[in-house]
Amino acid sequence: MAIRIAGWQKLSLIDYPGKMAAVIFLAGCNMRCHYCHNYHILDTRANCLDFAMVLAELKKRTAWLDAVVVSGGEPTVSPTLLPILRQLRSLGLLIKLDTNGTRPEIVRTVVEAGLVDYVALDIKAPASKYRDIAGLPIDKVLMTAAYLRSQKRIPYLFRTTVSPRLTVGDLQNMGQTIIAGAPCWQIQQCRTVGAYSDAEIRQMAESLKKYALYIVVTGV
Ligand code: SF4
Question: For the whole model, what pTM was predicted?
Answer without folding.
Answer: 0.97
